[in-house]
Amino acid sequence: PWLLRWLPSIAQHGAGQPVLELGCGSGRDSAVIVAAGHALIGIDLSAEAIAAARRRVPSADFHCRDIRDPFPAPAQLGVVLASLCLHYFDWDQTRALAERIRHQLRPGGLLLCRLNSTRDVHHGARGDGEPGEPFYLVDGIPKRFFDRAAVDRLFAHGWRPLHVEHQVVQRYALPKALWEVVLERAA
Q1: Scanning 30, 82, 136, 186, which has its CA 20 to 30 A from the CA of 39?
Q2: SS3 assignment, position 125
Q3: What is the pTM (predicted TM-score) of this model?
Q4: Are 28 and 4 in contact (CB under 8 A)?
């Protein structure tokens, strides 16, 4: 239910346009957005997750694709959602993706994202990674973890932070440490 407190901001910034959700998974957050009256375009790499999302939220527009590919959404959107999906890439790809998201938003548009925390030891924030970078193989899958400095560095140019908060949530069997970040695209 992390999105519930952000629904008024989503409505304000959305201005009747669809919300673009990157890494939508099985549609858990998609359902919250659509139930609040918004159209939604969801993207996920997993065909199984997209099939589950379509069953959960049949009115949404889901696409099975890599989030590094062009977004199937109109330019100048009001809201982009990226919950726990920006961590699979090296730093240059992560920065490029954040920049693409910024360009997808109109000035004043809203990005709501959650990022893995370097304190997320139950879900892989440990081990050998890139020198000086918390980027590890977790069960064979690359994952990046963020401290506050990395969050600030990722969104240093062209963004106005509205909310940056470290949290521990109970989404999985073990506690999950993450950063909840809400930003506006600067004009």
Answers
A1: 186
A2: coil
A3: 0.93
A4: no
Task: Count CA within 13 A, CB hemisphere, residue 15.
Answer: 11
Helix (H, G, I), strand (E, B) or coil at 135: strand
Question: Residue for token digits 């629904």?
Answer: 7
pLDDT at res. 70? 93
Distance CA 42, CA 64 (A): 9
Give residue-wise pLDDT tens across range 152-185: 999 999 999 999 999 999 877 888 899 999 999 9
Beta-carbon contacts of 112 under 8 Å, excluding residues fewer than 6 positions away, are 3, 6, 9, 10, 79, 80, 81, 82, 83, 181, 182
CB 41 within 8 A of CB 18: yes
The confidence score (pLDDT) of residue 139 equals 76
CA-based angle 33:84:2, to the nearest 5?
A: 45
Q: Is the pLDDT reported for residue 128 higher than 80? A: no
Strands 77-83 and 105-116: parallel
